[in-house]
Amino acid sequence: MSDIGLTSGxxxxxxxxxxxxxxxxxxxxxxxxxxxxxxxxxxxxxxxxPNVRMVLLKGFDSRGFVFYTNFESQKGQEIxxxxxxxxxxxxxxxxxxxxxxxxxxxxxxxxxxxxxASRPLGSRIGAWASKQSRPLExxxxxxxxxxxxxxxxxxxxxxxxxxxxxxxxxxxxxxxWHDRKFRLHDRIEFRRETSTGAWSKVRMYP
Length: 206
Ligand SMILES: Cc1cc2nc3c(=O)[nH]c(=O)nc-3n(C[C@H](O)[C@H](O)[C@H](O)COP(=O)(O)O)c2cc1C
Prior knowledge:
Layout: H1 17-31, E1 38-44, E2 50-56, E3 59-61, E4 64-70, H2 74-82, E5 84-91, E6 96-106, H3 109-118, H4 121-129, H5 139-152, E7 164-178, E8 186-191, E9 200-203
Helix pairs in contact: 4-5
The structure holds flavin mononucleotide.
């Protein structure tokens, strides 16, 4: 597959993963049908059983990769319990994959407040109304909950629920994969010993 027109052609010479990730995300924003920031999030429960689901990446920089959720959800509880997670992006239009894993920290209240305030009103109400990952007796119960919170916050600001915030995965490794002919793909993994340490780079067999 040709890289013509993409911001990042030969990625194997890059020495730092965050700028490369940014370039690939930018490429995906131009080429994906929808949700270029959609990412599979893997967690593990107290018994060591893995779990995976999609979330939307809402920020990234040299500190790590941020998404938002209900901390009382299954993923929220698993992350709070184990303090670790992994992500896997797959951009079909680009035939590229990025996977990363590491420890997880909670974003600051200021950061979560700022993102929450940027969400549409319905989403802010939804964060209150949905007891995410817990049994729901019927769609009507959810609609009733939405109506109740809509009435409660009809006037003034909708505050951010205390159980709703962001997690930041601080990667200890990030792997970039790009499709090449005959399944002889390019794979480059960046690794570091500590969350602020220097990155080393390893090329892997596909
Ligand atoms: C494309 C896509 C993006 C999603 N983004 C989020 C998200 O950013 N945060 C979230 O809590 N759930 C998101 N979801 C829903 C989750 O996949 C999941 O169903 C929900 O969070 C409950 O997961 P849990 O029971 O493992 O906690 C998204 C689903 C899809 C398909």
